[in-house]
Amino acid sequence: MKPAATPNWWRKTACTQAWRHCSSTAWPTHEPTHRKNNMTFLFSPLTLRSVTLANRIAVAPMCQYSAEDGFANDWHLVHLGSRAVGGAGLIIFEASAVLPQGRISPQDLGIWKDEHIAPLRRITHFIEQQGTVAGIQLAHAGRKASVWRPWEEQQGRVHPDQGGWRTDGPSAIPFDTNYTTPSALTVDGIKGVVKAFADAALRAQQAGFKVVEIHAAHGYLLHQFLSPISNHRTDQYGGTFENRARLALEVVAAVRQVWPEQLPLLVRLSATDWIDGGWNVDETVALSRLLREAGVDLIDVSSGGNIAAAAIPVGPGYQTQFAARVRNEAGIPSGTVGMITDPGQAEHILRTEQADLVLMARELLRDPYWPLHAADALHDVTSWAPQYMRATSRKSPQRPNVDYSDNE
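Given the sequence above, the corresponding structure tokens read:
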């Protein structure tokens, strides 16, 4: 594996060991000329097309399993809004189903009908008032659909008489023994999925989103087509790499056609199935090159999710190596995710050119205000909401005062 390039100025500092051994005061004093004095990489802006993120911290999509008929509600407003107050540069809403049968659980967020737009717009408006960019992940769960929420006593498939539905996939192969065996999608069914993603992107624009991410990871429908483990088709959507990648590329083309040219498009990929004979890192890099040519602006690199019994070596930053390969070999900006918890760790990832964006999930569930604390830890500053300025211990800039009386 080709390592990410390490700048000379990094090698000369006290931080030549792993990020965990670095003190927040040991960052190098000599930085590239395009950077402002004393600005960390984590709190430097990132521009994708016409959209500029205030920093490199993104809230990763995290299913809340709290919607009814796909509609966003007060839980989503408070959950996502608090992370905008907390200073994240980008918030990507949870996997939002482009079709009702594409939900993971009956309680998933949805964007398959126009009525979903207004409740979503209420949340994106508040997020933008905090200086954060709102993004949405468009998704179809495929064979992993129609299951119980993680905290329910029952697990596995939700039967139709319990509010579940028939699932679809590339082939009639269930994800696990307690999941429904999906129906293999017909070519017409595949065309319907492609159209549903494009229609959802149009709704996303109307709902006020500035970033769209297509979910092609974690064992959901587009990933199922990519992997030879779950895709046993013999037509133009199965077999060779080119055929298995066809659906993902068709979805991207359809979305890019309707999504405004000035707005960025992201794709989340699982870099590996973590099993011999499955989707792998070399194929991820190859697909990333094709996605770059198709108008994708950043690859959000994760891993796994398609094989129930896969042995995944989970640990701090365990997926960052994959983001580095995509960034440096496919020539496209990458985001990394997975057990990133420490400000020094996040800064190290960016400084050593392993990724351009750090996406965080569980750590931001534990601490919605992690970005504010990270700026303190790195001796940098980031803006605070006026209502919270009395709590900052540094000379942090204040965000503009907002009149919330007109919010819907």
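The longest helix spans residues 187-206. Try to locate this feature in the token string yourself.
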